[in-house]
Amino acid sequence: MRRLTRRLVLPIFGVLWITVMLFFWVTKRKFEVPTGPEVQTPKPSEADWDDLWDQFDERRYLNAKKWRVGDDPYKLYAFNQRESERISSNRAVPDTRHMRCSVLLYCTDLPPTSIIITFHNEARSTLLRTIRSVLNRTPMHLIQEIILVDDFSNDPDDCKLLIKLPKVKCLRNNERQGLVRSRIRGADVAQGTTLTFLDSHCEVNRDWLQPLLHKVKEDYTRVVCPVIDIINLDTFNYIESASELRGGFDWSLHFQWEQLSAEQKARRLDPTEPIRTPIIAGGLFVIDKSWFDYLGKYDSEMDIWGGENFEISFRVWMCGGSLEIIPCSRVGHVFRKKHPYVFPDGNANTYIKNTRRTAEVWMDEYKQYYYAARPFALERPFGNIESRRNLRSTLHCHTFKWYLENVYPELRIPSDSSIQKGSIRQRQRCLETQKSKNRDIPSLKLSPCIKTKGEEAKSQVWALTYTQQILQEELCLSVTTFFPGAPVVLVLCKNGDNRQQWTKTGSRIEHVASHLCLDTDVFGEGSENGSEVVVNPCESSLMSQHWDMVSS
Fold it and tell me: CA 478 to CA 465: how far, in whole Å?
């Protein structure tokens, strides 16, 4: 009997111990109730992530806004919605990093970051794939939170339904605010010590975040960006981008990617080394939160989208920081050819307002070259900039001359920044733009000259710039081919495009690349009302090639 009792002691003790531990665990779970808005944001362990995905009804979420057969798949989002929806939210993408990146070591105590994604009427398939790529390819302990800022999309559920996903929070604007103010709102509530800004139609690649956070941890004044791979807007194929690129721009403040010079490439002994960049594209970057606040966040008076990347880039460099592209961090991005959403004041007016604010605050006397490249910007209101000028003074920032000498000496200063502005007249008729309901870009025609000043006369006002472009607002005269009789059309201005370059010599306007002259062809019954603007071989005797530029 004693032996039996001794044998039972150990199992009984074990059962009691397990019972006590279960009691304390259940009690602890019972009283751990999150407070405030965090109730809506689950904080799972890594093992629970799959369970949360199972609870999220992905098919229902996507089907509610699914492309319908017969609809134009590009109409809503300016990319192929049908193809995007065919691709899994959980798809694999090729590792496009240099092979040396996989053996690099990073700090083991990197701080978690707040990932901020702003959007307005984004396709659900691309928005979900952006979030899922972040959750799949980022160590969980490095994600403080994923803050979605819904900039007053038509359907609040685009954002609201996603809070069931790990780490995701949703903020919704009560009215359209634009990218800048939406990002500021997300940054203000962020709990991480660093901020990671992403667009809503991208896919992060393998080990994308660690090299970015590592660089910021080394120096909090660094603002760092990944190499941006391309997600094809038609097929959604993931395409590797060249790694030896940096951001650049021209005097019209038009962003462009540029190759590193031969000298810069020669100095890069290690392909994983950071690339100093004069300007960032603006959609994807990491910044220390305290540094972001200290520098003045964003210019909150900028509207909707465009130009904010110039403002923050100039400010970072001129006020003590630096901008770097990190080759071992890769993020794919869908580059669209046009904006699918509406700008309340028009795309061109909004961009000019935002870039003019940048020029007035940060470019000092060099802003004259901006106005020479964008002569119509002088007529556009840009709001009050006193607070931004005061910020620059308080931060004791460098001059724009310093920026050109130390950061972007490759930006050539024009030897002649003069412009001619006025009507382009042929006898009593003037070159005019005519808007059409079914066309985004207006057409050209010759009309009776408008003698009074006002809104109607603006369609007959042109500028001939030092870049040899003849433009009205953001549209330039261009040719479709270099053959005689080719029609002259309006296209979006692009510096360096030889189809858009003209010179005025005497009474002739000559196309530089083709050596043909601006001319009018009469069609129909021979009436001047039926005339087309074309280019033809230059003949001084032809009155149809005589043009006067009359200052307005």
Answer: 14
E strand or H helix that includes residue 169: strand 168-172
Q: What pLDDT band is residue 51 in, cutting at 50, 70 and 90?
A: low
**Distance, CA of 222 to CA of 219 (rounded, Å):** 6
**What are the tokens at 484?**
């005689």
> 268-292 as b/e, with b when 16 or more CB fall inside 10 Å?
eeeebebbebbbbbbbbbbbbbebb
Helices assigned H by DSSP within 137-269: 157-160, 178-189, 209-218, 262-267
- The DSSP output letter for 266 is H
* Reported pTM: 0.82
CA 236 distance to own-chain centroid? 18
Look-up of token digits 């540029």:
258
What Å distances lie between residue 552 and 416, 452, 454, 462, 510, CA to CA? 21, 10, 11, 9, 22
* pLDDT digit string, tens, across residues 198-237: 999 999 999 999 999 999 999 999 999 999 999 999 999 9
Question: Which two structure tokens, joined as six digits, stand for 322?
Answer: 């630096």
Contact 252, 373 (CB under 8 A): yes
The answer to whether the Cα torsion of 211, 259, 468, 545 is positive or negative is: negative
Give the start-end residues of each E strand in 374-428: 420-426
Q: What is the pLDDT of residues 414-464, one digit of tens each?
A: 887 778 888 999 888 999 988 877 777 888 888 898 877 776 678 899 999
Residue 327 contacts residue 97 (beta carbons within 8 Å)? yes
Comparing CA positions, the residue from 200, 143, 149 lying closest to residue 166 is: 143
Query: Three-class SS string for 107-132?
Result: CCCCCCEEEEEEECCCCHHHHHHHHH
Tokens representing 214 are: 């590592």
Distance CA 66, CA 68 (A): 6
Any idea how long the chain is?
552
Q: Give the helix ranges, DSSP H, for 137-239.
A: 157-160, 178-189, 209-218
Among 499, 498, 496, smallest CA distance to 488 is for 499
In DSSP notation, 451-507 reads -S-STGGGGG-EEE-TTS-EEETTEEEEES-SSTTPBEEEEE--TT-GGG-EEEETT
Residue 160, CA atoms < 13 Å, CB-side half-sphere: 8
| Helical residues (DSSP H) of 137-240, grouped into ranges | 157-160, 178-189, 209-218
Query: Which of the 8 DSSP states describes residue 341?
Result: S
Q: Are 187 and 292 in contact (CB under 8 A)?
A: yes
Q: What is the DSSP string of 33-98?
A: ---GGGGGS----GGGHHHHHHHS-HHHHHHTT---TTS-TTTTTSS-HHHHHHS-TT------S-
Residue 386 to residues 183, 220, 313, 379, 383, Cα–Cα distance (Å): 22, 28, 19, 19, 9
Separation between Cα atoms, residue 204 and residue 326, nearest integer Å = 14
Indicate if the pLDDT at residue 255 is higher than 90. yes
Give percent helix, percent strand, percent coil of the chain, each to the nearest 5: 35, 25, 40
